[in-house]
Amino acid sequence: MINVAILGLGTVGGGVAEVIEKNQNEIRKTLGDNIHVKYILDIRDIPGVVNDINIIVNDPDIKVVCETMGGKEPAYTYTHLALERGISVCTSNKELVDAHGVELSAIAREHNCSYLFEASVGGGIPLLRTIREAFGHERVSRIAGILNGTCNYILTNMKAGKDFDSALKEAQEKGFAERNPAADVEGHDTARKIAILASLVSGKKFSYEQVSCEGITSITQQDIADAESNGMAIKLLGVYEADGPSVVVAPYLVPKSSPLYAVNDVFNGIMISGNMVNDVMFYGRGAGKLPTASAVVSDVIECAKNIGHNIHTGFSDIQPVQSVNAPSKPEGRKLRVLGE
Ligand SMILES: NC(=O)c1ccc[n+]([C@@H]2O[C@H](COP(=O)([O-])OP(=O)(O)OC[C@H]3O[C@@H](n4cnc5c(N)ncnc54)[C@H](OP(=O)(O)O)[C@@H]3O)[C@@H](O)[C@H]2O)c1
């Protein structure tokens, strides 16, 4: 039996416990062993839940920790403590991966354990493992992704006639928007995700601060109607171009001919262009309790199959990118067009 702990019993952490409980048979089939949640840590006083990280990291039974607290602290300190003791950490926390992922991955390598972050980009879409395992030999020229379900939901609903504020309110009521919607609608959430993707495919560390970032708050229903009459849809995209290199988050006009045009509601879609494989498209739920938790559990299973070994993600030995281009918007135009 593989004993694990969950740090943070919120949306994703609660989902991890549920996936492990409900899919125990499937887990046993793929892992050849059961996964048992021995501890749950949260800041709140809940019966059966611990508050002290030392109880977890000092227990030699614990092989994997799921960090689903979010934020930089104490997530960073707790992750550091676990990795130093050879306990693998699987996280959904894109903020921490962006800020300290390289350092934490190096600590994991030093201590023969792993730091995996599949759920931090694209929620339930098996994206990072696929990039790691199937794109390592490709020269990736471009990634263009709808990476924030809240923005896509808002833009889809604006196309159906709602104004920005009521579309945002509806997204919040349905639980899609993060606690602070600014991170979604101003593009920061997408910026963190595209920076992680750009780092993985380029072998150079792009940080969130290096992303040229514009959100969707200035998009009007008129912009959407104009786009539609030209056979296009407005989508908030994170775009990485190896040529430059450049990393941009902005609302783009997406032509009908692009598969991203048809990615609506809370769904995410990511196109990756490799020099040999050409265009590959990923589609699925980029957030939400169970899809995101499913990605965390997929990491737990990979760590459990590799106890005592470091899973190489490419993050432990990458150098910061020296310079990033900030391509200006085409003159006289409010929006960029995907592909131009
Ligand atoms: N929700 C999604 O669909 C989704 C998708 C992909 C990635 N993520 C990422 O996953 C992470 C978690 O998101 P979430 O939506 O699950 O957040 P959440 O619902 O707020 O859950 C976080 C949990 O951690 C607890 N916590 C906060 N500070 C703590 C501390 N110092 N010690 C122990 N527990 C603490 C919180 O308790 P309190 O409630 O008392 O503060 C809460 O129970 C974030 O990094 C987020 O960006 C979320």
How many DSSP H or I helices? 12
- State the total count of DSSP E strands: 14
CA-to-CA gap between the ends?
A: 53 Å
What is the CATH H-level superfamily of the largest domain? Dihydrodipicolinate Reductase, domain 2
At the third CATH level, what is the topology name of the largest domain?
A: Dihydrodipicolinate Reductase, domain 2
Order of helices and strands: EHHEHEHEHEHEHHHHEEHEEEEHEE
Class per helix and strand makeup = alpha/beta
CATH class of the largest domain: Alpha Beta
SSE topology:
Layout: E1 2-7, H1 11-22, H2 24-31, E2 35-41, H3 53-57, E3 62-67, H4 75-84, E4 88-91, H5 94-110, E5 115-116, H6 128-134, E6 140-146, H7 149-159, H8 164-173, H9 181-185, H10 188-202, E7 204-205, E8 212-213, H11 221-229, E9 232-241, E10 246-255, E11 267-274, E12 278-285, H12 289-305, E13 319-320, E14 336-337
Parallel strand pairs: 1-2, 1-3, 3-4, 4-5, 7-13, 8-10, 10-14
Antiparallel strand pairs: 6-9, 6-11, 9-10, 11-12
NADP nicotinamide-adenine-dinucleotide phosphate binds next to α1 and α5.
